[in-house]
Structures are given as C-alpha cells and as structure tokens.
C-alpha cells in the first residue's frame, strides 16, 4: 500500500506578519503621501491653486478609465482598447457637432448636446459589447480581443477625418448644442464638472461592487470562474456587462476631453490604457482577478496623476515618464504578489492556531 504524501508545510510567518500585511494593503495611500510630499518640495508651484485644478481634472479622466478597468480586471480580463475608444468617441462627438447625421437627399439631422452625448456613450458601450462578445462567444483571449479593437477603433477615428482635427467644437445655439464646452470646462460650486462626473460614477460603481448581486457575481467570476458557473452565475453575461461598462467610461472621457479642448483629434487617448491599468493595479486590484476596490483605484489614479504632473513640472522628458509608469506597474504587480503570498500564510497560521 502506498503511503499518502505528506502536505508541504507553509513557511511560518513571524509576529510582524500581520503588521506587514496591513502596510502592504495601505501601500497606495502611503505611496500617494510620499509622492505628493516629494513634488511639493521638489517641483516649483506644484501646490499652486491653478496646478491643483489642472491636476484634479487629469486625475478625474484617469480615474474614470481606471474604474471601468477595475471591473474588467476583477473578472480576470484586460481592456487594452480604452484609449482608442476615447479617441473614437471624441471624433464622433466632433463629427456630430459639426456635420450632424447625413441621411442623404440633402437631409441632415442636427442634434442638441444631450443627444450627442447619448449617441457617443452608445458608441463606447457598443465597442465594449464587441469586446465582450469576442471574449464570451468566440472564446478570444481578452488581450487579443481588446488589442484588435484597439487598432480598429483607432483606425476608425483616423478615417473619420482623414487624420485631421475637428476644431471649434463650441456648438450651435440654433440646434441646442452650445452647451457642449460646459461638460469639460464648466464648474459647479467651484468644482469642475469632470470631478462631479467622477464622483457620481465612483459612488455608483462602489455601490454596485459592494452592495448588489451584480458586484458579488463580478468578484465570483474573477475568483473562480468554474465555481461561479456551477453556482448559477451567468459568467458570459457578467463579462459582457463589465466590458460594456469599461467602454462607457472611456466614452465619458472622450466627451470630456473634446469638451475641454473644444476640438477632437484622432490620436487622443494614446497610452491612456497604460495609466488606467497602472491606477487599478496600484489600488490593489489583482491581475489574477477576484480582488479589487473602487476606493483603492481612485487613490491609485491620484498617485499616477500626481506622478505625471510632478514629472512634467520638473521638466522630465515624456519618454522617461513612460518608462517610470511601466516600472510602477511592474512594482505594483510584484507587491501584489507579495501581499497574496503573505496573506495566504497568515491565514494558514491563524487556522493552525485555532485548531490547537
């Protein structure tokens, strides 16, 4: 009779293990304090009110993308197309503002601001749905599916204007579209509209993630897809929803940028997916799925925003900024793996202590 193999004992965790685990969980907040303090000292005018407003707008854009990316990563996926969706949706907004919808026979439908925004948001959700269908119905890997739509969306944005900019997107009072610039450049109670949009999306996303069956199903799919399916979770539907939501967030960012600049360029949004992934991972979202919080993602977006603006104010080359962001992503993933291993060992040690 063959003896059963003995389980391999886990390496014991020292007494400071729980404290180290807590520090790892708070790493994003600690990083934000350190980065903010460094640039407050090293970068001239970093703490000026004008720079704080500009930085808040940048953070809002990155955070909106990162919120959508967080849901995707929690399910174990990735969305590389969000930057291209930003560019495409900005171009759609510019086209509708300047040209309307041409029906042929010299008939053109001119739209007001609300109608334009709804159509643009629909385009973002539609591209997200294509991502979701490629992944769930055709079994294409998320990396490949969203890489393909990245190129398709960017190409469509370039084709819409032959690579040119749509300028002077101030709207037309005759069609009720004169309020378009308010979306990105306006403010309410002294706070930019973009920040209010971020607050609304973040609160809603956090509520869905923590308080609804949909949120629990998202975490279940990322934690154990097979187990979730066996327990009755409609895995394909959940994946489709999160990619559609990611496209919705990207469309919002495209609208806000076009409104801020009062112009749309097909190259808008390039490398934005890098910032979104970095913010989500920095905020504690696990690349292996099943773990992540919206609050952590917001803090991660602040870290990326402060880092980007601080480096610009210090005159650091944009090339080096890309290198640094890549290193930040690698470091965040390494720390996340350390946290996962340490947490597993702490749990095993606590279970062993209770069984004695």
UniProtKB/TrEMBL annotation:
<feature type="transmembrane region" description="Helical">
    <location>
        <begin position="180"/>
        <end position="209"/>
    </location>
</feature>
<dbReference type="Pfam" id="PF02653">
    <property type="entry name" value="BPD_transp_2"/>
</dbReference>
<keyword id="KW-0997">Cell inner membrane</keyword>
<dbReference type="GO" id="GO:0022857">
    <property type="term" value="F:transmembrane transporter activity"/>
</dbReference>
<feature type="transmembrane region" description="Helical">
    <location>
        <begin position="294"/>
        <end position="312"/>
    </location>
</feature>
<dbReference type="InterPro" id="IPR001851">
    <property type="entry name" value="ABC_transp_permease"/>
</dbReference>
<feature type="transmembrane region" description="Helical">
    <location>
        <begin position="113"/>
        <end position="134"/>
    </location>
</feature>
<keyword id="KW-0472">Membrane</keyword>
<dbReference type="GO" id="GO:0005886">
    <property type="term" value="C:plasma membrane"/>
</dbReference>
<keyword id="KW-1003">Cell membrane</keyword>
<feature type="transmembrane region" description="Helical">
    <location>
        <begin position="20"/>
        <end position="47"/>
    </location>
</feature>
<keyword id="KW-0812">Transmembrane</keyword>
<keyword id="KW-1133">Transmembrane helix</keyword>
<feature type="transmembrane region" description="Helical">
    <location>
        <begin position="59"/>
        <end position="78"/>
    </location>
</feature>
<keyword id="KW-0813">Transport</keyword>
<feature type="transmembrane region" description="Helical">
    <location>
        <begin position="140"/>
        <end position="159"/>
    </location>
</feature>
<feature type="transmembrane region" description="Helical">
    <location>
        <begin position="84"/>
        <end position="101"/>
    </location>
</feature>
<feature type="transmembrane region" description="Helical">
    <location>
        <begin position="240"/>
        <end position="258"/>
    </location>
</feature>
<protein>
    <submittedName>
        <fullName>Erythritol ABC transporter membrane protein</fullName>
    </submittedName>
</protein>
